[in-house]
Each structure stands twice: as structure tokens, then as C-alpha cells.
Amino acid sequence: MKCRVCREPAIIDIRRHNANFCTEHFLRLCRDQVERSIKDFGMLTRDEKALVAVSGGKDSLAVWDLLLDLGYQADGLYLGLGIGDYSDESGRLAQAYADRRGAHLVRVDLPGEYGYDIPAGSRAAKRAPCSACGLSKRHLFDQAAIDGGYDVVVTGHNLDDEAAVLFGNVLHWQTDYLGRQLPVLPARHGFPRKVKPLVRLGEREMAAYCVVKGIDYIVEECPMAAGNKHLGYKSALNDIEASSPGAKHSFYFGFLERASAMFRPEAEAEQDDLLHPCPTCGAPTGAVTPDGEPTTCAFCRLVVRAGGHHPPPRDASDVPVHLDTDRRRAAVQEASP
Ligand code: Q46
Ligand code: ZN
Ligand code: ZN
């Protein structure tokens, strides 16, 4: 097995490229694919401040590493979700990476600051763990990015993730989700842009990238992921990819090029529909009571049902931006048609 570029011994075969690569040219391929996604989709510039959502897994550590190597300004954000040993170990690995690179890691601890963890919170709120977790993560990423003055939030979603989400959305014809499934979600309502620079790279490549770069990542799956439909879709797509290399890539990029625009008007109309600032946290929300009255956002309702609380401002002059309802209201009104 020889490298396609230099004919030296290869360390990885990538069947969808019908090619093998040595260490040097594999790393170059990863960097080129990330740079290409960033340019093609207008994800970020080197003048902007990026906050990378780091879970301690291979994808988020790899995307952080790639952005730093490519000269982007990227800090990490680790959310402690209180999922037992899994959270302890993933937090340790995220911090170890940051220390080794001399990079800055912002840490938010859900049990310490909000008074609930994902296992207990999801039981109390009668929500599936991944649903309570996803809702909490989205809110806390946005909030940390606003509080820290970041322009863009980066996540480590790779081609396998995006193809699996697309597969699930198509299987159930979730047309509103299809309209939002993009590698870049533009900034709106005072929230930063969200970008996925790994969409051109697969899960296997990201594991290989971490091994080659000596990045220690958490290998176990989150223990709450059992029964998660996403894993089933991934494995179905892996079977298809095995007999038809490149299938995931053409499924996902074919969707972006030829179909996604058809679903966008519905998703955009829904997003702009009747938003108001949440009376508790200030985040824009479309939540209404059964009588149609504007009410608190899904995250704040989860916090209450899970028996948690919002962290108090440290002093009157230090009200976090996410609690600055006037500023958030102005952003919502400005964005309203
Ligand atoms: S961390 Fe959270 Fe994932 Fe664990 S509980 Fe589900 S969503 S599986 S990426
Ligand atoms: Zn080579
Ligand atoms: Zn709220």
C-alpha cells in the first residue's frame, strides 16, 4: 500500500477517494479538506474569534487541533454534563489537550452551576437523556459564546454524523429540520454563527488523525447513548458505504447542492415566527402557554423540572449578557420582519 502522492508506505486507505496516504500526506489531506469547507461555506476568517465545543472525543479535539494548526483563533468550551466517570474522563482529556497546546479552555459545569446533571435531570423532566442533553448543550454553547464575545461556535460534526442526521430526517420527512441542516448556520437574534468544518472528513479519518497527532481522546461512547437512533442510522450507512464507497459523501453533498434550498423557506419562517425573549434567561424563544401567551424557553423549563437553578450574577455590575434581557430583546426586535 503506497501513498498516492509520494509513493512512500501508506498508513491509511480512504476508499471514497480511492487512495492511500502516508502520515504527512494524510495530515495534509485533513487540513486541506477543513480549509476547503471553511472557504466553500464561508465558515470563519482568521480575524474572528472561534469557540470550539470540545467533548473530549476525537472529532472535537481534532477540529480544535486543525483550526489551531491552520492559524485560526480558537478557544475550547467544555461542558461538564455530570454523566459519571464518562464526564470526569472526558473533561480531563479536554483539559490535558488544552494544556499541551497552551490553548484556552472555557469550562461550564452543569451540576455545579445549574444544579442538575443529565441523568437525574432527564429523569425528573421525563425527557430522553439525549433530548435533555442536546437542549442544555445548545443553550449553554450559545450563552458561553455570547458571554465570551466569540463570533462563531465550532462543532466537530463529521461527514458520518451529518449523513446519519440527514438519513433520519429524510426517513421521517422532518422538513423543518431538513431546512436547517447546513454546515453553517448564520448568526441570528444575537447568537453567533455555528459551523461544522469537518463535514468533508469521516469518523475513521478523525480517529486516525488523533492517533497520528498523538491526541489522547475518550474512546468509549457516552453511556447514555444506548438506544440512540442516530447510532442505528450510522451503522446502516456504514453497510451501504462498505459496498458503495462514497455513498455518504454523495448523499450529504448531493442534498446540500440539489435539495436543501427547497426546505429552507419553511425552516426560516418557523425560526422567525413570533419570537420573544425568555422572561427568565433572555434567549429568544417561540414558546407559548396553552392559551397562546409567551412563556419561558424550553431550557429554563427543563432547569425547573430537573430541580435546578440559574447561576446568580456575581454582583450587580456583572450581569451576564445572557441575562441582559434588554439587549436580547433589542436583538430579537431588530431581527424581526
Ligand atoms: S453526550 Fe448527551 Fe451525547 Fe451522551 S447524553 Fe446523548 S447527547 S450521547 S453527543
Ligand atoms: Zn505521501
Ligand atoms: Zn430561558
How does this structure look, described?
Mean pLDDT is 91; it is low at 314-323. Helix 7 (159-171) packs across helix 11 (247-258). The chain has helices at 23-41, 58-69, 84-101, 110-114, 118-124, 129-148, 159-171, 175-180, 203-213, 229-243, 247-258, 260-272, 298-305, 325-335; strands at residues 12-14, 19-21, 49-53, 73-80, 105-109, 152-154, 184-185, 193-195, 276-277, 284-285. The protein has a single domain, classed as Rossmann fold, CATH 3.40.50. The protein has a six-stranded mixed sheet, sandwiched between helices. A two-stranded antiparallel sheet has the order 1-2. A two-stranded antiparallel ribbon has the order 9-10. By secondary structure, it is of the alpha/beta class. Bound molecules: Fe4 H S5 and zinc ion (2 copies). One zinc ion (ZN) is lined by residues 278, 280-281, 283, 296-297, 299-300.
Q: Report, as a whole number of angstroms, the end-to-end distance.
A: 58 Å
User: What portion of residues belong to β-strands?
Assistant: 5-15%
| CATH level-3 fold name | Rossmann fold
Q: How many discrete domains?
A: 1
- CATH C-level category: Alpha Beta
Q: Give the neighbour order of strands across the main sheet.
A: 5-4-3-6-8-7
Named once each, the bound ligands are:
Fe4 H S5, zinc ion
Estimate the helix proportion, in percent. 40-55%
Largest sheet: 6 strands, mixed
State the order of secondary-structure elements, H for helix, E for strand.
EEHEHEHEHHHEHHEEHHHHEEHH
